[in-house]
Write a sequence for this structure.
């Protein structure tokens, strides 16, 4: 295997933090190389330098033996380096073809481009209609747009940042087939992911980063996921364990719930029924956009439903708003951290006040008791290891993982009877994710009922007693999580869900 | 065909003249907004363009020089907005409002010695053959160059945004500036260009009022037309064709109600004065309500872009 890209001693400093410190590694031609690390380990910065979005303070790169120092992404693309971003860099109001054209240096005419999009997409088993508006596509389809945008430029090195976080197991399979095909054609892939099993299945080599430094290089096929995780975190992982957990009385009872969201792009909930007992963790899987947000909104009280459709602790709560439900112990933490779970420009103390005033009694005759609120904010920060200068920091200034710990902690520490969470560990590093899961399990052990909506199946399998899946607004009957196979789960989630292989 | 003292041919012809300033300013603002920038300073750029154009036309005795000066003046003033919002990251709404106040004040100051003068006349282009068609000839084919320029600009801007790569990049910047930046496009440069274009078009529109429509200089000559242009962009769902409809509708009803007032129609004057606003809003709301109207706004409209 000849060497394609060699990175030597790259260093990049931001005010107050050394994001990359003397990072060196290399990727061979046709190699799938993994870049592993927790949030803030410096993976993004490193990749940005390779893609020309940032310039290193020290160190150099070599591409096919000659010096490589891209001034901007255009130069990187011209040299044969393409990138699929974690947060899709797509334009929702534009068509697939227009999105692809924007990522190319010298795009052909639109009609020719549409033709080549069709060809490439069929070739690699990623069917896609070039005339559709990206805003109407599913997450999996959007990712295909990005991949095809890269493939059309015939890249030598394809950088993929957390590509599977939004895909079903079947979609992941198709993606892997595509990547293996690319690999067999001699394309190198730099693969960034948190999911260690995936890396073991796909990658030939791995470089592990921690706090901006390379802490290890390994062959993922010969290393266990646990060993890799420990190298990444630098400590022994605490795997959550289920303690106790004999299910008690029924806390939450939803029968035949139908709901039409006000947002025209939302998903209708059709005949959803579920029953949650004290001490139970109900995991709800499914691909994003199949009704997760809507389910959370009808349980939290953001959306009201027909009489008698949501019964909490023997009481009909379907007409109650979120605060009334909080008062009696039904709490929720939505998926979108910035803007839904937390107000981005408000401080952590203020954000604490937004959901905790009722249960933590933070008001006195309708005046906020700021001292008490700040104390509670500090308690959340301390107990959930939220890394921030203090409760006065704006929510926006926290990294995604830290803010997630905060918004989950805020609800958990309010001692709920039922807690509904959506994507509790999305974008959170391994150590923090384990801590969040443990906190959820502890809560269940104390007798609360939990509904965990997530797209991370490993997570659901790890913490759920029962598992159900959302598929286009319908919820499958919950089944005991123990002993479910990946195939069964995939079928519950709606099978391949428009991901059939083309040709 | 004669409705009392109103001659329909003259009415139709003056409709086009009355609509041109709104059309020019609204088209420019539409391009600016398509790049994700909300410049509320249209009124200020128009009146500044009006005074620059007026002064240049008087001093050089050439209306063409007047229009060039107006476009340059409008663009120059818009660059101030560009610096504030793109370099110093000021919030766009107050920056735009400040631009209007500044433009109005500057125009009064510069125009002081030019009150009561008459500018050189902009010659009408008589388009051979077509101009002699009865009714249509005098209505459509006997106007000055700027009227035709404004109509050509409708087509040019539509085609630019729909078919050219530069237009695609401009729309991309307005839809998702972070993604455009990640792909290596120069968000700020694109926005500066769009702001400058909007300023130049507003300046042209202003000069059309002071050089052709009125034609003389008085303080506050634009009389709120910049605000109408802003509203038309929104109600037209950021589409060049609908901007044309909106501008002509507004201009048309303005002319009609003025004629009705002069003819002594038995309708309260207040109601007549109100009618262009009501009719324009009504028609464009109906048009845009059919397919998700307001959602067609550029997603980044008015949002500040930080390079991170």
């Amino acid at each position: 295997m000849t060497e394609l890209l060699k990175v030597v001693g790259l260093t990049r400093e931001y005010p107050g933090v050394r994001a990359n410190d003397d990072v060196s590694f290399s990727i061979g031609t046709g190699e799938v190389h993994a870049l592993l690390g927790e949030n803030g380990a410096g993976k993004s910065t490193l990749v940005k330098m390779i893609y020309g979005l940032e310039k290193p303070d020290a160190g150099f790169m070599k591409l096919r033996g000659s010096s490589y120092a891209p001034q901007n992404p255009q130069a990187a693309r011209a040299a044969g380096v393409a990138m699929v971003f974690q947060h899709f860099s797509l334009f929702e109001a534009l068509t697939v073809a227009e999105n692809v054209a924007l990522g190319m240096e010298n795009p052909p005419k639109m009609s020719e481009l549409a033709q080549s999009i069709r060809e490439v997409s069929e070739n690699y088993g990623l069917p896609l209609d070039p005339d559709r508006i990206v805003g109407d596509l599913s997450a999996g389809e959007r990712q295909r747009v990005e991949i095809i945008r890269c493939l059309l430029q015939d890249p030598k090195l394809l950088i993929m940042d957390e590509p599977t976080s939004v895909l079903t197991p079947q979609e992941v399979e198709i993606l892997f087939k595509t990547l293996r095909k690319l690999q067999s054609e001699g394309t190198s892939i730099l693969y960034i992911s948190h999911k260690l099993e995936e890396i073991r299945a796909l990658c030939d080599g791995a470089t592990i980063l921690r706090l901006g430094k390379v802490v290890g290089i390994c062959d993922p096929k010969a290393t266990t996921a646990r060993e890799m995780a420990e190298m990444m975190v630098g400590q022994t992982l605490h795997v959550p364990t289920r303690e106790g957990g004999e299910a008690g009385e029924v806390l939450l009872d939803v029968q035949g719930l139908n709901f039409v969201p006000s947002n025209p792009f939302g998903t209708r909930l059709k005949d959803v029924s579920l029953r949650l007992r004290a001490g139970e963790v109900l995991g709800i899987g499914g691909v994003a956009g199949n009704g997760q947000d809507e389910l959370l909104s009808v349980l939290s009280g953001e959306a009201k439903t027909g009489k008698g459709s949501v019964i909490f602790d023997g009481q009909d709560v379907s007409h109650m708003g979120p605060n009334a439900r909080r008062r009696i112990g039904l709490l929720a933490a939505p998926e979108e951290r910035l803007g839904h779970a937390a107000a981005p420009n408000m401080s952590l103390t203020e954000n604490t006040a937004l959901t905790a005033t009722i249960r933590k009694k933070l008001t006195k005759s309708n005046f906020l008791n700021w001292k008490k609120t700040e104390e509670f904010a500090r308690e959340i920060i301390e107990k959930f290891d939220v890394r921030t200068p203090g409760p006065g920091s704006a929510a926006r200034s926290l990294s995604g993982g830290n803010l997630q710990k905060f918004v989950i902690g805020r609800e958990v520490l309010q001692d709920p009877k039922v807690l509904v969470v959506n994507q509790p560990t999305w974008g959170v590093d391994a150590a923090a994710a384990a801590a969040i899961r443990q906190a959820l399990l502890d809560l269940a052990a104390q007798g609360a009922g939990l509904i965990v909506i997530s797209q991370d199946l490993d997570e659901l399998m790890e913490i759920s007693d029962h598992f159900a899946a959302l598929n286009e607004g319908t919820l499958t009957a919950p089944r005991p999580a123990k002993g479910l196979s990946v195939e069964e789960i995939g079928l519950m989630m709606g099978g391949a869900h428009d991901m059939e292989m083309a040709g | 065909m004669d409705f009392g003292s109103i001659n329909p041919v003259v009415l139709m012809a003056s409709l086009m003249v009355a609509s041109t300033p709104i059309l020019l300013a609204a088209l420019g603002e539409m391009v600016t907004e398509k790049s994700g920038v909300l410049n509320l300073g249209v009124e200020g750029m128009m009146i500044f363009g009006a005074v620059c154009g007026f002064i240049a036309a008087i001093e050089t005795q050439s209306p063409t020089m007047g229009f060039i000066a107006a476009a340059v003046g409008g663009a120059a003033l818009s660059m101030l907005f560009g610096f504030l919002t793109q370099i110093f990251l000021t919030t766009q709404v107050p920056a735009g409002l400040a631009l209007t106040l500044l433009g109005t004040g500057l125009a009064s100051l510069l125009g002081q010695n030019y009150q009561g003068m008459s500018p050189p006349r902009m010659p009408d282009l008589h388009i051979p053959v077509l101009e002699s068609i009865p009714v249509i000839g005098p209505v459509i084919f006997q106007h000055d160059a700027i009227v035709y320029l404004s109509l050509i600009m409708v087509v040019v801007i539509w085609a630019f945004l729909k078919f050219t790569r530069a237009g695609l990049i401009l729309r991309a910047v307005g839809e998702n500036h972070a993604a455009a930046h990640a792909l290596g496009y120069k968000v700020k440069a694109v926005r500066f260009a769009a702001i400058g274009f909007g300023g130049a078009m507003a300046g042209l529109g202003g000069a059309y009022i002071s050089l052709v429509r009125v034609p003389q200089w008085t303080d506050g000559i634009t009389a709120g037309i910049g605000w109408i242009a802003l509203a038309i962009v929104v109600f037209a769902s950021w589409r060049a064709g609908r901007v044309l409809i909106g501008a002509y509708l507004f201009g048309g009803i303005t002319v009609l109600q003025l004629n009705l007032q002069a003819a002594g129609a038995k309708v309260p004057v207040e109601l007549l004065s109100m009618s262009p606003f009501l009719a324009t809003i009504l028609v464009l709301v109906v048009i845009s309500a059919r397919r998700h109207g307001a959602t067609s706004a550029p997603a980044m409209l008015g949002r500040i872009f930080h390079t991170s």
